[in-house]
Amino acid sequence: MISFNKIIYIVSTVLLISLFSECRKVEDPNLKRENHTGGCTDPDSPLYKEHVDYEDQSCLYAFTYKYEITYYNLNNGTDWDNYWCITSQYYPADLILRIKPANDSAWIFESPVNEDQPHDQITEWIAPQAVKLYNTNYMFELIDEDGNSNWTCDTGSDLIYTGIFNPIENAENGVSTIKYKIGNDSLQLKIYYDLKQEY
């Protein structure tokens, strides 16, 4: 016959073994990080790191604050507006910049007109509101807004250049730089951003 003390001993031993087993199943977060590399695992962040072992909550995101056309050396390096019917010369364009996700119909940025912008000088627009950029394709259009001038032979707006780009793939140190070159024509678009936590 098993004594009462022995029963207590057996039950206590079984409980201790069971409790120890359950404790081992709870993963210590500090042990998880030991000898492993943490980082941002969200591809929409410019701080994304592909080869990390765990998410360390370091992700920040790109929110726009300024747009720039550094140069648009198109039309064989001349300025865009053609006044050939009057003076046989080209003159600086009145620039409009538009940007939107490639698969969307709505523009996330549509600039006011910057008038008389030479092709080889920087023109900038301040973002009217901060827009979060994603790791996806966007489309831009650079337009010469001619209006209804009586001094130009072309009284409509001209599409100077359009292109597809991924702002996160081109992001570094607070600026996404997109360059295009076709033959002797080239263009550079820059989108400046602040790194912020997700809203």
Features:
five-stranded antiparallel β-sheet; 199 residues; mainly beta; Immunoglobulin-like; 14 strands
Describe the structure.
The chain has 199 residues and is mainly β. The protein is built from two helices and 14 strands, in the order ααββββββββββββββ. Strand 6 (93-101) and strand 7 (109-110) form a beta hairpin. The longest helix is centred in the N-terminal third of the chain and has 22 residues, at 4-25. It is elongated and about 110 Å long. The mean pLDDT is 81.
Q: Any idea what the radius of gyration is?
A: 30 Å
Largest sheet: 5 strands, antiparallel
Main structural class: mainly beta
User: CATH H-level name of the largest domain... which superfamily?
Assistant: C2 domain
The run of helices and strands is HHEEEEEEEEEEEEEE
Number of helices: 2
What is the level 1 CATH name of the largest domain? Mainly Beta
